[in-house]
Automatic annotation (TrEMBL):
It comes from the Bacteria. This is Pyrroloquinoline-quinone binding quinoprotein. The lineage of its organism: Bacteria, Bacillati, Actinomycetota, Actinomycetes, Propionibacteriales. InterPro entries: Quinoprotein_ADH-like_sf.
Length: 418
């Protein structure tokens, strides 16, 4: 049985990091070549792009807009940027059973206040792309979710979550298998709202499966969802069965806001709780917790194989190349890297094939490799495997395509062996 280890950031300086980390990664992945395929201008601020763009096979789904009630949704071919379908933000969408509605979006980069950090999910459940809508563009209005066929942009179903005029909005917060989580609340962040309700919908039909008052969706993967539930002791993280809402795991510690959800992918979730002093790593399908010893929460990536990645914070980069540590999921052991350039720390964001994509950031240790700072792919040894791209935001990546953003545009790049 896997046992959870509580991890305290206030550990004594010099305490072992990942005790028993005796293996060293040796498999060096081939270098990659990146070729710009196309770029398209967008209005979304750059900090909002990771929550607005999704690769779906050889398609790129883009939610673009600057306001809560105004968004353009486009599906573009990754190969050349040609539009497969689009829903303009100047026209209403006719939805079965609902009539004409306006598509909308919430999340980072939308509101003027940088503290409003709701993280909507842009993702498909099979062929269905769930999108938020409002009945009109008044401050108080009804709202819900429309399920659109990602292949042609045709609305398949609609679900009105808020029937009466309200300042609350409905946000897609998780997609897991054939289930969509829709969270209804007023704008919130960085802490939780006063109240919220999450509704689970069948992605194929829009039928309600279950709902929870005082619950906010955080993420989904496979047949599981991660939520936060309001209790007398604060908001507690939970892993639930996506279809039934039955809890598989409930955290012992409260989380202060959605920003303490680190990542959910590859049947695992990482949560940094209680002022980031305790890290929980949970296997979604079983509710088991992973045992590890470290003083910082790891990154989590869906590479092949999926893995945890530690390489940030003074205690890590001061160890030099061996500060780069990975652990294969679900039952691997900590493995030291050997090639991480001095003076940098790596923040893991995505995994694709044998590559870990993220950003190199400079440290005070050295300026020798400052030219490598930026978005980059590395292998399990920590060795850089692609050219660095400074000043861009990593929006999404697959084995074939990389999507990055900068103020004013989204760019798709073709990934090839060097």
């Amino acid at each position: 049985m896997v046992v959870r280890r509580r991890v305290l950031l206030g550990a004594v300086v010099g305490a072992p990091l990942l005790v028993g980390c005796g293996k060293t990664a040796r498999d060096v992945a081939p270098e990659l070549k990146l070729e710009t395929a196309w770029r398209v201008p967008v209005r979304t601020r750059v900090e909002g792009l990771p929550g607005r763009v999704r690769l779906v096979g050889d398609l790129v789904v883009l939610f673009d807009g600057t306001g809560v009630e105004k968004v353009r949704v486009a599906c573009l071919k990754a190969a050349d940027g040609s539009q497969v379908w689009g829903i303009d933000d100047t026209k209403q969408l006719s939805v079965p059973g609902l009539g004409d509605v306006w598509l909308c979006v919430v999340g980072r980069g939308v509101y003027e206040s940088p503290d409003v950090i709701q993280e909507p999910t842009v993702g498909c459940a099979g062929d269905i792309l769930p999108i938020s809508f409002v009945a009109d563009r008044n401050a108080r209005t009804s709202s819900g979710i429309v399920g659109v066929d990602v292949r042609d942009g045709r609305p398949v179903w609609g679900f009105r979550a808020v029937a009466d005029a309200s300042a609350e909005r409905t946000m897609v917060t998780a997609v897991a298998g054939c289930v969509v989580l829709a969270t209804v609340s007023a704008p919130y962040g960085p802490q939780w709202p006063d109240r919220a309700t999450t509704i689970a919908l069948d992605a194929r039909t829009g039928r309600e499966l279950w709902r929870g008052a005082g619950v906010i969706g955080l993420a989904g993967d496979g047949e599981s969802v991660v939520v936060a539930r309001k209790t007398d002791g604060g908001w507690r993280p939970e892993v639930r069965d996506a279809q039934t809402g039955t809890p598989r795991w409930t955290g012992e510690h409260s989380i202060d806001g959605p920003y303490q959800h680190v990542a959910t992918v590859a049947d695992h979730t990482v949560l940094s709780t209680k002022d980031r002093r305790v890290t929980d790593i949970v296997r979604l399908s079983t509710g088991d917790q992973l045992d590890f010893e470290a003083d910082a929460p790891p990154g989590l990536v869906g590479s092949e194989p999926p893995m945890l990645v530690w390489d940030s914070g003074v205690a890590w980069w001061a160890k030099g190349p061996n500060g780069f540590v990975t652990q294969t999921l679900p039952k691997g052991s900590p493995t030291k890297g050997k090639k991480r350039p001095k003076g940098l720390e790596f923040h893991a964001l995505h995994g694709a094939g044998p590559y870990i994509w993220g950003t190199y950031k400079t440290t005070q240790e050295s300026t020798e490799h400052d030219d490598l700072a930026g978005t980059i792919a590395v292998d399990r040894t920590g060795q850089p495997r692609s050219a660095t791209q400074p000043g861009v935001v990593l929006a999404d990546v697959s084995e074939k395509w990389l999507v990055v953003g900068k103020n004013g545009y989204v760019e798709v790049q073709r990934i090839k062996p060097s």
